[in-house]
Amino acid sequence: MIFTPTNYRLQTVATGRLFDDEGWTLDDKQCDKPSMVRPVYEKKQLEVKEGACLGLYRYADWLPIKTMLRHPSEPITYKSEGLAQRLGLHNLYITFNGWWPERNARMTTCSFKEMEAYSVCARLGDDLKDKVLVVASAGNTARAFAKVCSDNDIKLLLCVPQDNINALWFDKPLKPCVKLITTESGSDYFDAINLSNVVCTLDGFLAEGGAKNIARRDGMSTTMMSATTFIGRTPDFYFQAVGSGTGAIAAWEANLRFIGDGRYGSHKARLMVSQNKPFVPMYDAWRADSRAMLPYDAEQARKDAAEICAPVLSNRKPPYGLAGGLYDALKDTDGDILAVSNDEANAAKALFEETEGIDIYHAAAVATASLQQAVAKGTVKADDVVMLNITGGGERRFHAEHEVCYLKPDHIFKIDFTKEEVERVLAEMK
Fold first, then answer.
1. Which residue in 112, 270, 287, 366 has a CA-CA distance of 20 to 30 Å to 168?
2. What are the b/e assignments for 404-420, b being 16+ CB within 10 Å?
3. What is the pLDDT of residues 70-124, one digit of tens each?
4. What is the mean pLDDT of residues 403-416?
């Protein structure tokens, strides 16, 4: 298939200003307050491409990409029977991201973070190919970017907390273009982000950009694109567990594009996102109706993050309060944030496997438990059209069918690292 780069301009959420993408634009330099920028695509109606090898690039009309990478995967949506019957729902649709060959789900990292990586890396132009892409992660994002960059010969530096590196498993050894540095045991995702920020001040390194990278959000929005095009309309409710909230923001943005498309309804899916107790900073801010995050002692945050069963949900600095962030998304969709305990998540994890037939990640189990809460409270009614975003699953199945190997760190930094130390270590790693 001959691919033509997608045509779009950028728009600042806070001001509405339209401007051109310079190639890796993350912010509007003319905006004086924190704000997301969004792509405004030339094609207002989404044409879903046909082709088994296209993966998420079936939705290329609404992806800000310059090329298509090798071996792409995609989310798979199906109508639930087992879990739906147990919950008393007539229109429960599951968007599954992971390894489940019988459903044609073939994400070899078993996480929807692959959607971010295949979109972000496809945004890289020739002018950036000599740069080293820098990604901070609590685990799953790092695994996804490592796989995609290794398969496509893209230079990558991962920054991950040392306690999370058991998430860096792969079905084959990675190419030398992928390197890993970590922050010492006892650190958390925020410490890894700090390390990546220092790295990105050095020559030759390119910040991936996190939630502000339009390609990350629009890659994640393929879950909503999968569900909406499968159902034939946007759902009434969207359920997902969140660490940063980026996936929910992406779903909201896709929903707005579907309204503009005109063929999938004019309503907005209510965003029902969830956090894992006791690490619930966005839940606390939302319950206080605060756009700003509430104070959260760093040591207490690390302690709380260490206690949750879904450590990928432990982002201390999420894109919550800025214009176009999660707070705005929830307000615009009449959404809510729910809190789920480890016991509730573990019970939901077992329930999903019993009723649907596949293992899922704890983060996806948090989302499933939050759906149970909403049904029990009567927020979700039997005939509502519900999308449950299972953000990762099939890992136990994948490991049973494949031999895996682990990526080892090239260097471990203490939490009180210095810029000079980082610069010296990276120079030695070249």
1. 366
2. eeebebbebbeeebeee
3. 999 999 999 999 999 999 999 999 999 999 999 999 999 999 999 999 999 999 9
4. 96
Predicted confidence (pLDDT) at residue 1 exceeds the cutoff of 60: no
Question: Cα dist. 51→58, 59, 74, 255, 297 in Å?
Answer: 8, 11, 12, 24, 50
CA triple 262-264-268, angle to 5 deg: 95
The yes-or-no verdict on residue 421 having pLDDT over 60 is: yes
Pair of tokens at residue 405: 């190997």
Cα→Cα distances 416→179, 195, 412, 422, Å: 21, 10, 12, 11
Cβ-based neighbours of 197, under 8 Å, separated by 6 or more: 207
Q: How many CB atoms lie within 10 A of CB 57?
A: 23
If you ran DSSP here, which 8-state letter would residue 305 be given? H
Residue-level pLDDT at 192: 93
Other C-beta atoms within 10 Å of 331: how many? 13
User: How many CA atoms does the CB half-sphere of 322 hold within 13 Å?
Assistant: 20
pLDDT band at 190 (very low <50, low <70, confident <90, very high): confident
* CATH number attached to the domain at 76-108+216-399: 3.40.50.1100
pLDDT at residue 25, as a whole number: 96
Residue 266 tokens, joined: 């004019």
Q: Residue 253 region, left (φ>0) first, then alpha (ψ -120 to 50), else beta? A: alpha
Rounded to the nearest integer, the mean pLDDT of the chain is 96
Q: To which H or E segment does residue 160 belong?
A: strand 156-161
Spell out the alpha helix ranges (H) of 131-221.
Answer: 140-151, 189-199, 214-220
Dist CA 124 CA 141 (whole Å)? 18
Pairing of β 37-41 and β 8-12: antiparallel
Instruction: List the domain boundaries for the chain.
Output: 76-108+216-399
Least confident of 105-119, 260-274, 303-317: 303-317
Amino acid in the structure at residue 304: D
Beta pairing partners, 302? none
